[in-house]
Amino acid sequence: MNMQQAIKMTAAETALVDAYTAQIGDLPGDGAVLSLRDTLVHELKTSGLPTRRVEAWHYTDLRTLLRAVPAADPTAFAERVDPLVPGSSVLSVRNGQADIKNVPEQLTVRSYTESLLDGSAAAGLSVLGADDAIGRINGGLVRGGLEIAVAAGVEIEAPVEIQVVQSHGQAHTRFPVSFGAGAKATVIERHLSTNAEQSFVSSVSDVTLAEGADVIWIILQQQGPADTHLGQIRFDLGKDAKLHLFVINAGGKLVRQELHGRATGEGADLTLRGINLLGGESHTDLTFTLSHDVPHTTSSEIIRNVVFDRAKGVFQGKILVAQDAQKTDAKMSCNTLLLSDDADFSAKPELEIFADDVQCGHGATVIDIDHTQLFYLLARGIPENKARAMLVNAFVAEIVEELEDDEDLVESLESVISAWLEKHA
Amino acid sequence: MLEIKNLHARIAEDGTEIIRGLNLTVKAGEVAAIMGPNGSGKSTLSYILSGREDYEVTEGDILYNGESILELDASERAAKGIFLAFQYPVEIPGVATMQFLKVAMNEQRKYRGEDELTTPEFMRRVKEAAAELKIAPEMLRRPLNVGFSGGEKKRAEILQMALLEPKLCVLDETDSGLDIDALKIVADGVNALRSPDRAVVVITHYQRLLNYIVPDTVHVLYKGQVIKSGDKTLAHELEANGYAEIIEAAA
Predict the structure, then answer these.
(1) Which of A165, A301, A352, B74 has its CA 20 to 30 A from that of A25?
(2) Does position A86 have pLDDT exceeding 80, yes or no?
C-alpha cells in the first residue's frame, strides 16, 4: 500500500504543515537547514503523526490524542518569571525567542537562531530514527533557542535556569549544550506557561558531557492545563562523566518527554529520577532509552508517579547494553501511586542486553497508600486527608532528597511538588 | 479515665475474635500494667484503643472520660488525648521528623480549638524534650524513624508523647529491643509524665520494664480477657512462677 495516498491528514497534522508553509521564507536557516526542514515536514505530511501501531508510540497514540494545534502567533508575549531557585542565572526564551542578556561570565551563549542561519545547526537537526516525531516536528519548525558551552574545568556555583516561557500559540526551541572536561554545573530546563490559553510546544535539548564532567540537569515541565508539550533531551556521556537527570512533569494536557542517552566513555554514570504528577484529564508520557555502549558504565533510574482523577501516564524505559559493554550496572524501577479508580498508568521497562557479564534489573510496581504508615500518622492526631497528602508527598519527596548537596534546589523542587499536590489532592 | 466494658473485638479481614469480653478500669493518675503471654491480645488491645481500622468491635464499649470513643477515628482519639507508643514505630521515608512533629502538634491543637504553635515556640519545646531524652539533633533531621536504631525509635516515641501531652498513654511493648541504658532513659521519660490527671497503660510481656515504671495495678490478659488483677506484687509473682499457674487457676 502506498503510504502517501493512505494518509488523510488530521486537523493537527494539517495545522503543523500549514504552520510550516505559512512561515516559508521566514524560518531561519541556510540552504542545508532549509532543505532539511523541507524533508522533515515532507515526512510528517506523508507518514503523519505516529499512531499506536508504531511501537515507540504504542501507549501515546499522538495522531489520535493531538486533536488540535493552535496557530503560531508572532505577536505573543510572555513575561519572564522568578527563577525556581533564588540566585540562579536565568536565560530566558519567551514564545520561542531567546533573550541573551545577562549571560553569566562562565558561560558561552549564542542564539540558536544564529546557528540555523549560518548552517552550523544542520548536523544536529537530524531525527533519531523513523519514529522520532518530536525531532521531526521540532526540526521542521524550530526558530530559536540557545547554544550553551561550559568550558573545560569550569565549575558554576549557582544553577543556570533555561526558562522557556509560553503564553499561547506555538514555540519550537532547541538547546545544544556542551560541558567541557571536568566542568561542573546545575542546569534547570524549565518549561512553563503564563496562562491557561492553548499552547503547542516542542523542545529538544542536545547535551554533551566530556570527560569527567559532573552535571545536574533538571527538566521541570509546568505547562498550562490546555497545553501540548513535546520534549526531548539527547545526551552523550563521555569517560567518567556523571549526569544526574531529574525530570518533573507537573502540568500540560498532552505531554511526551523523551530522554535518549548514550554512555560512550568508560566510567560514565547516569542517575535518572523522574516524578510524574498527573491529574485532570491529562496524558503524560515519559520515554527513556539509554545505550551502554562501552564497558564499566553505570546507571540507575527511579520513576515515581502519582496519578489522580482521570489522568493517564506512561513510562517506557529501555536500557540497551552493547555486546562489549561488560560490567555494566543498571537498575531501573518505576513505582506508581494510583489515587483514583479512573487513573491509569502503563509502565514498560525493557532491557536489551548483548553483553554477558552485567548487572541489570528492572521492576515496576503499582501501589496504594501504606496503611501502617497512614495509621501511624492518624494515631498522632493528623486528620486522614492531611495524613494521606503527607504520604503522597513523601512518596515523591524521597527521591528529591537525594539532591541533598543543594538544599535550595531540594527546597524549591519540594515546594513545586507540594504546591501541585495541594491544588490537585 | 478509661473504662473497658465487656469488650469483644475481631480482626476485620477474617473475623478472628481476639478480645473476648474484656473488662478494665484505669483511673486518672494510675499506671496500669497489662501483662500476658504471646497471643493473649495485648497488642490488639492497644490498637483497638487507638482506633486502628483493621479491628472491629462487635460487643461492649470503651469509655474515655465517660464517653464512648468507638465512633471516633484514630486521629480524633489522638487529638482527645489518647496516645499509643508503638511496639514497632513506623518508618516513613520522605517525611521529615520535624515537619511531622509540627503537623501533629498543631493538628491536635486545631482540633481542640487552640492556637497553633509559632515556629520558635515549637522549636523550643522540641529542643527541651529532646535533650531530656538524650536525642541528638541529627536524629531529628532525618526522615521519620528512618535509619533509627531500635532504641532511638523508642526514644522518639516517648519524645512524641512528651510533646503531645496526652491524657491516656498506651505503651505497647516499649521495652522490646532495648538495652538496659535505653530502657532507663525511656522509663525516666515515662515517669516524668506521670501526673494525677494522666493515666498510663503499660503493655509488656516481661516484668523488667516494671522495675523502672512501677505500676499501681497489674492485669493479666489471657485469650482476650483479664483473668487476674492485682498490685505490683502480681508482676513479681508472674516473673517468679510464669503464667501457667494463673491461667490454670482461672480456667
Answers:
(1) A165
(2) yes
Interchain proximity B92–A373, CB inside 8 Å = yes
CA dihedral (A23, A26, A32, A35) in degrees, to 10, reads 20
> What is the chain A residue with the closest CA to B100?
A377
Q: What mean pLDDT do residues A308-323 have?
A: 96
Across the interface, of B54, B93, B104, the residue whose CB is closest to A380 is B104
Q: Name the pLDDT band for A6 (thresholds 50, 70, 90).
A: low
Residue A304 lies in a domain: no
Give the domain range for residue A378.
369-425
Cα separation, B208 vs B173, in Å, equals: 11
- Alpha carbons A185 and A34: distance in angstroms, whole number: 34
- Closest residue of B to A400, CA-based? B94
| B203 band by pLDDT with thresholds 50, 70 and 90 | very high
CA distance B241 to chain A (A): 36
Q: How far apart are alpha carbons A423 and A222 in whole angstroms?
A: 13
Nearest residue, CB atoms, A375 vs list B52, B94, B164? B52
Please give the average per-residue pLDDT across A116-141, as a whole number: 95
Count of domains in chain A?
2
Q: Which residues on chain B are in Cβ contact (under 8 Å) with A302?
A: none
Is B117 an 8 Å CB contact of chain A? no
Q: B66 to each of B4, B19, B81, B194, B216, how far by Cα in Å?
A: 11, 21, 14, 21, 21
Return the ∠ at Cα B171 (arms to B169 and B173), rounded to 5°: 175
Kindly list the residues from chain B whose CB atom is less than 8 angstroms away from the CB atom of residue A380: 75, 78, 100, 104, 108, 160, 164
B:21-80 residues touching chain A, CB 8 A cutoff: 50-54, 73-75, 78-79
**Residue carrying C-alpha cell 473476648:** B20
Burial of A26 (0-12, 13-18, 19+ CB in 10 A): exposed
Q: Are B91 and B144 in contact (CB under 8 A)?
A: yes
Indicate the residue among A235, A265, A295 that finishes a domain. A265
Q: What is the pTM of this model?
A: 0.86
Which of the listed residues A239, A265, A291 is the one where a domain comes to its end? A265
Could B92 and A377 be called an inter-chain contact, meaning their C-beta atoms sit closer than 8 Å?
yes
Task: Please report, as a single letter, which amino acid is at residue A90.
Answer: V
Q: Within this chain, do residues A233 and A92 fall inside the same structural domain, yes or no?
A: yes
**Out of A379, A391, A396, closest to residue B78 by CB:** A379
A315 is a domain residue: no
Q: Is residue A281, in this structure, part of any structural domain at all?
A: no
User: Sign of torsion, CA A419 A195 A199 A37?
Assistant: negative
Q: Do both A242 and A376 map to the same domain?
A: no
Asked if B74's CB is within 8 angstroms of A378's CB, the reply is: yes
Size of interface A-B (CB pairs under 8 A): 78
Chain A contact set for B86 (CB, 8 A): 376, 379
- Whether the predicted pLDDT of A177 surpasses 90: yes
Q: Within 13 Å of residue A245, how many CA atoms lie on the same side as its CB? A: 29
Give this complex's ipTM.
0.95
Q: Which of A379, A384, A397 sits opposite B50 (nearest CB)?
A: A379
Tell me, yes or no, whether A322 lies in a domain.
no
Same domain assignment for residues A123 and A250? yes
